[in-house]
């Protein structure tokens, strides 16, 4: 029997999900930064800043930014690791990676680039001091495989930071949050990116992503140590952190 997985609220053949997610990000790539600012009222920048603080990044370290998109997080890391360090901006989607490369060059930021599948990272064991994935894990089909792959390429003593939409913990706000997610976001997508369906999928994918406690258990199961998480904006997003000891 053919294995299926969720694509938003729909069930699709497992091998089709990567293609469907790629179509979403092919569509939104050129407007990705503008939509992020609109959707979060610019607060996504504060969420990413907090993630960088939790990373404890030091000059000379090697950083892998998975699902790095347009490269805003990678650019910040590049300034912190300096010329002796290395930042790899990685994404499974070629269109997103191209936009990230163009934006990085415009910023005058020197990065390395890699088109990769997070489930099977093409790097040697114990390569990176820090791995980040911001708003990308929920689009991965086999999240356990991706977490295990991150653990493998992380150096002993290194850490992973997962910034992702999660479960809102302020119950009275849930009806308003649902209205915003399923009505306002697709409207903004149609207005700005001429694509309501992709932003409807993004809203649905948030609801299908493991909540804070479930993701923490998944990280522990694959072998990360000293795992914790920090709720931001009432749990709309959370930053999970784990170490390879």
Automatic annotation (TrEMBL):
Pathway annotation: Cofactor biosynthesis; ubiquinone biosynthesis; Quinol/quinone metabolism; menaquinone biosynthesis; menaquinol from 1,4-dihydroxy-2-naphthoate: step 2/2
EC id: 2.1.1.163, 2.1.1.201
Annotated SUPFAM superfamilies: S-adenosyl-L-methionine-dependent methyltransferases (SSF53335)
Reaction catalysed by this enzyme: a 2-methoxy-6-(all-trans-polyprenyl)benzene-1,4-diol + S-adenosyl-L-methionine = a 5-methoxy-2-methyl-3-(all-trans-polyprenyl)benzene-1,4-diol + S-adenosyl-L-homocysteine + H(+); a 2-demethylmenaquinol + S-adenosyl-L-methionine = a menaquinol + S-adenosyl-L-homocysteine + H(+)
Biological process terms in GO annotation: aerobic respiration; menaquinone biosynthetic process; methylation
Keywords: Menaquinone biosynthesis, Methyltransferase, S-adenosyl-L-methionine, Transferase, Ubiquinone, Ubiquinone biosynthesis
Binding residues annotated for S-adenosyl-L-methionine, in chain numbering: 70, 91, 117-118
Highest taxon of the lineage: Bacteria
Function: Methyltransferase required for the conversion of demethylmenaquinol (DMKH2) to menaquinol (MKH2) and the conversion of 2-polyprenyl-6-methoxy-1,4-benzoquinol (DDMQH2) to 2-polyprenyl-3-methyl-6-methoxy-1,4-benzoquinol (DMQH2).
Listed name of the protein: Ubiquinone/menaquinone biosynthesis C-methyltransferase UbiE
The encoding gene: ubiE
């Amino acid at each position: 029997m053919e294995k299926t997985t969720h694509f938003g609220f729909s069930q699709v053949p497992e091998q089709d999900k990567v293609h469907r997610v790629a179509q979403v990000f092919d569509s939104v790539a050129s407007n990705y930064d503008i939509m992020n600012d609109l959707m979060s009222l610019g607060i996504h920048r504060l969420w990413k800043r907090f993630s960088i603080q939790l990373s404890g990044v030091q000059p000379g370290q090697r950083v892998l930014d998975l699902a790095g998109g347009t490269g805003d997080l990678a650019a910040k890391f590049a300034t912190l690791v300096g010329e002796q360090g290395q930042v790899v901006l990685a994404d499974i989607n070629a269109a997103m990676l191209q936009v990230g490369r163009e934006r990085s060059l415009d910023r005058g930021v020197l990065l390395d680039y890699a088109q990769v599948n997070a489930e099977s990272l093409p790097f040697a064991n114990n390569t990176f001091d820090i791995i980040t994935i911001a708003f990308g894990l929920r689009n991965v089909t086999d999240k356990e495989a991706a977490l295990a792959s991150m653990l493998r390429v992380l150096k002993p003593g290194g850490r992973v930071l997962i910034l992702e939409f999660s479960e809102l913990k302020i119950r009275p706000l849930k009806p308003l949050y649902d209205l915003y997610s399923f009505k306002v976001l697709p409207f903004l997508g149609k207005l700005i990116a001429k694509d309501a369906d992709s932003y409807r999928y993004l809203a649905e994918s948030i609801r299908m992503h493991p909540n804070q406690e479930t993701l923490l258990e998944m990280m522990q199961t694959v072998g990360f140590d000293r795992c914790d998480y920090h709720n931001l904006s009432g749990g709309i997003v959370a930053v999970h952190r784990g170490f390879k000891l």
